[in-house]
Amino acid sequence: MNVAVRPRVQALHAAGELLNLADVTTSCFPYSEAVIVSYAPGQEVVGEGDPTDNYFLVVRGVFRAVKVTRDGRRQIFAFYMPGDMCGLEPDDAHGLTIEAVSAGTVAALSRQACRARMLRDPQFNNSVFDNITRALSRAVDHMTMVGRSSAEERLAWFLWMLSGRARGRRAASVELAMQRQDIADYLGLTIETVSRTFTHLKVQGLVALPTTRRVEILRPDLLERLAAADRDAPIRAARAVG
Amino acid sequence: MNVAVRPRVQALHAAGELLNLADVTTSCFPYSEAVIVSYAPGQEVVGEGDPTDNYFLVVRGVFRAVKVTRDGRRQIFAFYMPGDMCGLEPDDAHGLTIEAVSAGTVAALSRQACRARMLRDPQFNNSVFDNITRALSRAVDHMTMVGRSSAEERLAWFLWMLSGRARGRRAASVELAMQRQDIADYLGLTIETVSRTFTHLKVQGLVALPTTRRVEILRPDLLERLAAADRDAPIRAARAVG
DNA sequence: CGCCCTGTTGACCGCTCTCAAGCGGCGTGG
DNA sequence: CCACGCCGCTTGAGAGCGGTCAACAGGGCG
Fold it and tell me: Which residue has the higher pLDDT, B173 or A170?
């Protein structure tokens, strides 16, 4: 986390996507206990093995949690959107690398302060608890998908989830903050398969791709059926892609 | 959760595998706030969709968290051992089914009481927090494995993890509480592939299988290399197979 | 203008899935 | 006590999906 700390507290109040936890945080200790830091795309927030000194709350932008293995295999565990907490790890060292996907801002809460605050502030404690259990339940869906679905189902699920994240109701088009390699590593596929599958969905008329980063959903009904093929429950409100 | 509640508080003190959280729980409210329930193999603790009235602490035996899809695909998200908490979900309904793998016992904590207790008992709050963040970090390894490894690597990883769970130090042989189908659904493979891969490890001389449920590790060095192929960090102490 | 980076497309291969048969242990009932 | 059937597991043959390797296209930027 060798990045200049640039306090930008006003960003907290400017960002429109803030959630309850973000509200709680910013209203309670924007100046004192949290440090606000901004990142350029690709910049690292924490690296694997770094000491677990801070927990992070995403304020603006998209971040990713990455694990890269010795032999180069890469798995993205989650994408974090504003309101999501990340870096909550039990050990003294981070097991995941957290990086900015797009330009973004986080609030860094000292681990100690965060734990202490949880004990004296019931609302904060509940928010953190909710956040982390929600991360777990997202991991369940993610795992089911990676473990048991075809490439087409995975990509449909991914797009469907992104479209559902748009504020308010489901969006007809999605802006992809991440590049193909990130999608591949999130879905447990190769970049070629992701690309081919995009083409396949396009040929079938389910989506259109005006640019590589923009996906228009032409047949939400069919996309949903594909996306839900490996899931029996209705899509629950998801705060992050993860 | 239509199972007769059979209080067996003595089991809590008899079980040798209890952990800090279990200790905390049992020492603090074994009689008042927690209900102790035992299950036969295969019995359901909670079903998917059941209201999230209780959180559970495994006291004895092995449990599994399962998700079965509409079209029959099945994914096991975690195996829970004594000291692990499960059923911690953010929504009002469970997203996972929790079942006993072997005969086992859980302490059921009312969700309300658990949340309330977290607020007034720092030690308990820390234990729960540790437990759940640990579950998240296990999910990371699990996902990396399911998303990026060969069948052989997955099974080696699974056996390696089980052997590392033995109390004290790494065990030379492992008793499998679960059957092949559970292993397959945990690793994102088919039962045939699991079976073939066991045979393959056997032929290579890495393991021996005196019975189908017992695995003797003959070449821990080679097994570890396979298991660690997709991981760069040393195996961290894992409380559960999950 | 040319390089680089990201994404797409193609050909081929191999791992795992699918479908199917066979095997062994165990419990039950004759 | 043995025969039978059930269940969990193993083994085999074949097919398909996605991975691998490689070439190419397009856009941004120096």
Answer: B173
* CB within 8 Å: B146 and A68: no
A190 CA to D14 C1' in angstroms comes to 26
Residues near chain D (nucleic strand), Cβ < 7 A? A 150-152, 188-190, 192-193; B 179-181, 191-192, 194-196, 198-199, 209, 212-213
Rounded Cα gap, residues B92 and B95, in angstroms = 9
Q: Please name the residue that has the structure tokens 């540790």.
A: B130
* Residue pLDDT, tens place only, B34-45: 888 999 999 999
Mind listing the pLDDT tens digit for each residue in B101-158? 999 999 998 988 888 888 888 888 888 888 888 888 889 989 999 999 999 999 999 9
- Give the model's pLDDT for residue A169: 76
Residue B17 to residue B58: CA distance in whole angstroms: 10
Residue B116 CB partners (closer than 8 Å, separation 6+): none
Task: Give Cα separations from A140 to A14, A83, A95, A160, A173 (angstroms).
Answer: 33, 20, 19, 17, 26
For chain B, give the percent of residues with pLDDT over 90: 56
Specify which residues A74 forms β-bridges with: A68
Q: For domain A149-237, which architecture applies? A: Orthogonal Bundle (1.10)
Residue A176 has a pLDDT of 95
**Residue B144 with chain A: CB contacts under 8 Å:** 67, 69, 73, 75, 77
- Spacing of B209 CA from D3 C1' in Å: 29
Nearest to A143 among B75, B125, B233 (CB): B75
Which of A73, A133, A143 is nearest residue B148 as measured by Cβ atoms?
A: A73
Looking at the complex, report in whole angstroms how far the Cα of residue A239 sits from the nearest Cα belonging to chain B: 12
What pLDDT does residue B16 have?
Answer: 36
CATH topology of domain A10-143: Jelly Rolls (2.60.120)
Is 90 exceeded by the pLDDT of residue A188? yes
Mean pLDDT over the full length of chain A: 82
Domains B10-143 and B149-237 alike in fold:
no
User: Where do the domains of chain B lie?
Assistant: 10-143, 149-237
